[in-house]
From TrEMBL:
Needed co-factor(s): FMN
Family: Belongs to the flavoredoxin family.
Organism domain of life: Bacteria
Keywords: Flavoprotein
Pfam families: Flavin_Reduct (PF01613)
Name of this chain's protein: Flavin reductase family protein
Residues of the Flavin reductase like domain: 15-158
Gene3D superfamilies: Electron Transport, Fmn-binding Protein, Chain A
Length: 192
């Protein structure tokens, strides 16, 4: 476990993705695990914390998440730019272990045992898939309840992001399309 990661109170879990970062969705079932990039995720409830993320019905990640009933959302920092782009551009269905292929370590989350990535990530959340009959067959959007969360205290603590020059490798990625991303930063404070 990365010594800089600290548990995040679940009442603050929605803040881990409310600024619209590209995320890594991980899943595991039956001895197989996978990771993919997703540009569309968002909080949908505060208490209990619930999120929505688009995971195409045809992906291996979605298949594993459906079989296990859960997945994890990892929030990559700028240090994982190439990994994020690579895992969003290929499938793991052919048996490729994307983690091993790209040399990215993961560990099992504390509640559901989903793969979570700490090195190069700003945060992660383990999520229990919420069955939504009207979405399971028709839509790519998945709804889930966050059951555990942690963040790197160098960039997220006390329930808030803190983007600074000295933590630029952990600053979150935001997908612009065609392999282009922008990195979060340049925080300004309202005066009111």
């Amino acid at each position: 476990m990365n010594s800089d990661f600290r548990p995040v109170e679940l009442r603050h879990a929605s803040r881990l993705i409310n600024h619209g970062p590209t995320v890594l969705v991980t899943s595991a079932h039956g001895g197989r695990c996978n990771v993919m990039a997703a540009a569309w995720s968002m909080p949908v409830e505060f208490t209990p914390p619930r999120i929505a993320v688009v995971i195409d019905k045809k992906t291996f990640t979605r298949e594993l998440a459906a079989a296990s009933g859960g997945f994890a959302i990892c929030v990559p920092g700028a240090a994982l730019l190439d990994f994020t782009y690579a895992v969003g551009s290929c499938s793991g269905r052919d048996g490729t272990d994307k983690f091993a292929r790209h040399g990215v370590a993961h560990r099992s989350g504390p509640v559901l045992g989903m793969p979570v990535i700490e090195a190069g990530c700003a945060a992660w959340m383990e999520c229990r898939l919420l069955p939504e009959r009207h979405t399971e067959d028709a839509y790519d959007t998945c709804f889930a309840e966050v059951v555990s969360a942690a963040a790197d205290a160098r960039i997220f603590s006390g329930g808030h992001w803190d983007f600074r020059e000295d933590n630029s490798a952990l600053q979150t990625l935001h997908h612009l399309g065609a392999g282009r991303f922008v990195v979060a930063g340049g925080v300004v404070q309202a005066g009111g």
